[in-house]
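Researcher: I'd like a candidate sequence for this fold, 346 residues long. If you have to choose between options at a position, lean toward the conservative one.
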């Protein structure tokens, strides 16, 4: 359980200690606590030794002031993203399309692709929010793991905002040691491709994940190349729409990698040919949930900190009452049963 994230944290410790960037933990129990810290063990975020080992050597005590307001906001936001948005999109839009893509037409196919795009964001950012919130309740502070990735106006920016702990890990322990951008243009493009290829394989040893990583690497390389050759820059709103849709359609490969491979992938693409087929999915309700899921990015990163600062100024009884109301809404809107988090499989 959690082997991939567990391994990445172990590697970062060993490499940073070998480089002299981090001092070895003073006691074996401090290292063990760092490696097996339960809030993020299963699916991240990947917390570096430089950040967490010192906190394990000087554990929070009874005098430590816990940021319960921020923890509560993060946990409730995570539960809403997962139970209300991600699970609805999966059960009503994404899963039916990817299970039998030949049964659907163009409108349904588009809704299904959008649904999985928002499902994977809401699902994984929800887990990250809950993990960060649980750590805060124990007196530990983790860095953010998402920062409105679908608002990105370039693929480089997307990877700076999506699963930040993984993308920064790949940069620091793969891309830069391979030479980064220090060994000429051609080598830079190769390093980008190789890094993203290995990042794809990390999610699963299958053709779909490998191709997903290669295509993202190619996009980063082409974007870097065009940035040097062409001075024209499209309007930011247009760039954001373009980046979002390219990322969304590449998620088809990612989803196909764990649900039938090539056959599923080709089935979804074929569904787009049936332009005249009437929609059989709940398009109206789905559109509302998609819009809410997309808007939840406004609660990422520094935006969430501003919201928390407002909540922190409320009286304690108001904070508790609002938390109870929000939790009741979550329980009322959430579908019956809760599906496992997507990233539990990686």
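Model: Candidate sequence:
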């Amino acid at each position: 359980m959690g082997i991939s994230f567990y391994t990445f944290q172990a590697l970062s410790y060993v490499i940073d200690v070998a480089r002299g960037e981090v001092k070895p933990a003073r006691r074996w129990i401090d290292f063990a606590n760092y490696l097996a810290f339960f809030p993020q063990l299963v699916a991240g975020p990947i917390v570096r030794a430089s950040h967490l080992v010192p906190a394990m050597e000087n554990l929070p005590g009874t005098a430590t002031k816990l940021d319960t307001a921020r923890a509560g906001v993060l946990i409730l936001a995570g539960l809403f993203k997962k139970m209300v948005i991600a699970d609805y999109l999966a059960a009503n839009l994404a899963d039916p399309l990817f299970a039998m893509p030949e049964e659907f037409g163009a409108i349904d196919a588009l809704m299904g692709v959008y649904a999985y795009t928002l499902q994977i964001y809401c699902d994984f950012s929800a887990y990250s929010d809950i993990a960060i919130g649980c750590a805060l309740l124990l007196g530990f502070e983790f860095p953010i793991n998402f920062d409105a990735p679908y608002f990105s106006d370039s693929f480089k920016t997307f990877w700076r905002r999506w699963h930040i702990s993984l993308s920064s890990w790949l940069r620091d322990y793969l891309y830069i040691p391979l030479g980064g951008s220090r060994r000429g243009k051609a080598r830079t493009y190769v390093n980008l491709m190789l890094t993203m290829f290995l990042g794809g394989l990390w999610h699963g040893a299958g053709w779909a994940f490998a191709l997903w990583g290669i295509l993202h690497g190619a996009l980063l390389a082409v974007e870097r190349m065009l940035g040097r050759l062409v001075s024209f820059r499209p309007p930011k709103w247009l760039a954001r729409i373009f980046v979002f849709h390219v990322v969304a359609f590449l998620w088809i490969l990612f989803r196909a990698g764990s649900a039938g491979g090539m056959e599923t992938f080709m089935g979804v693409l074929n569904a787009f040919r049936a332009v005249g087929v009437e929609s059989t999915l709940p398009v109206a309700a789905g559109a509302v949930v998609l819009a809410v899921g997309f808007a939840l990015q406004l609660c990422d990163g520094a935006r969430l900190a501003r919201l928390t600062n407002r909540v922190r100024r409320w009286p304690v009884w108001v904070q508790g009452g609002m938390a109870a109301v929000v939790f009741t809404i979550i329980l009322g809107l959430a579908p019956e049963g809760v599906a496992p988090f997507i990233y539990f499989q990686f």
